[in-house]
Write a structure and sequence with these properties.
Number of helices: 8
Number of domains: 1
CATH architecture: Alpha-Beta Barrel
Structural class: alpha/beta
Distance between the termini: 23 Å
Helix content: 25-40%
Largest sheet: 8 strands, parallel, barrel
Strand order of the largest sheet: 1-2-4-5-6-7-8-9
CATH class: Alpha Beta
Radius of gyration: 17 Å
CATH topology: TIM Barrel
Length: about 240
Amino acid sequence: MLSSLKIPRIIGHRGAKGYAPENTLSSFRKAKELGATWVEFDVKETEDGILVIMHDDDLDRTTNGKGPMAKTPWTVVNELDAGAWFDQAFSGEKIPTFDETILLLKELKLGANIEIKPCPNRDERTAVAIANAIAKKWPKELPQPLVSSFSMDSLRTAKRTHPDLIIGALFETLPSDWKKIAKEVQAQTINLDQDIVTLEMIKEINNEGYPVLTYTVNDKKRAYDLFNMGVHSIFTDYPWKE
């Protein structure tokens, strides 16, 4: 399994989050400019079911809007500024749709880790929508994306919807029954917080045939220490070309 997945060692976190407003088209372009070949981003739904690139459940932190995404229709979301909070140079930046993002990834030749980030109580419906969008619209010239989530319900649903999806089980801490969970969701990678990984943990996971991907690694020395410990890939706010 380790050798069969074409996932690079360096993946831009929410694009190039350290240099541009996260989860925006500008951030994905910046990641490409810096030499990244893959980016990671979060997908959730508006009130009326439009798939958009957004991390938080609420609009407040990364836009000039307020309140929950789940209660905001696309017509309102589409008018929000998602760049000025980061820097005035990005004023007018929009929250991109998943469709817009797929088109840009095709143009830039960027692979992706797509994180299913459902609004509360939307784990299954958001997973179905994302799985269907990938099946219908993912460019054949791009590598098959890695689909990850902290929601095991989302992962089970996505895999059931389209069995060809490559699944990454995402954990803040590694549960004692992680092997059982990984089999249930048919995971092919284990994605972990870099702060909790140990050499023993990485060896145990690798010995079961799973690559370990760690987030969020913003120090190059730490990144290469993790690679030497057996980590397959890192997510970073400051991607670089190896």
